[in-house]
Amino acid sequence: MTHSSPVIDPRRFRDALGRFATGITVITCQDPQDDLPNGFTANSFSSLSLDPPLVLFSLRRDAGCLGAFERAEAFAVNVLAEDHEGLSNRFAGKEAGRWDGLDYEAGQTGAPLLPGMLAQFECRTEAIHEGGDHRIFVGRVLRLTQPREGEPLIYFQGDYRYLARD
Fold first, then answer.
1. pLDDT above 60 (res 78)
2. Cβ atoms < 10 Å from Cβ of 77
3. Rounded distance between C-alpha atoms, residue 103 and residue 128, angstroms
């Protein structure tokens, strides 16, 4: 007996997924082809394993930076704080020049680390898997830092949200 998949309307699916609140990151790499930094805003970041320490993120197949991440052997996950809405928007767009005038430093793996983050994970790419219209990157955490305290920037139902204060 064959089981057919239910037909899920893509817009309803996206809207339903938007009801899952997530943190926001900027994931970065240094492209070995042109030795330039690359990065994008992502809420598709997740922990995968404590032992060994593994994380994952997914990247759309049509993303302009996909090739850079496939070529790079490492990446960094920069966890945004509530005052980083502008930085999130900067890396969410497709505009050239997103690195212009931006302070950053190369981490242990060479991937760019952005200043003032809540946490940073420097990772070596362990595997890249197929995932429908995305590619799934698995990284082994080689180094982590927590540069500052603060509240996270959150994404929910297509907009930024903030934690309520007591």
1. yes
2. 24
3. 29
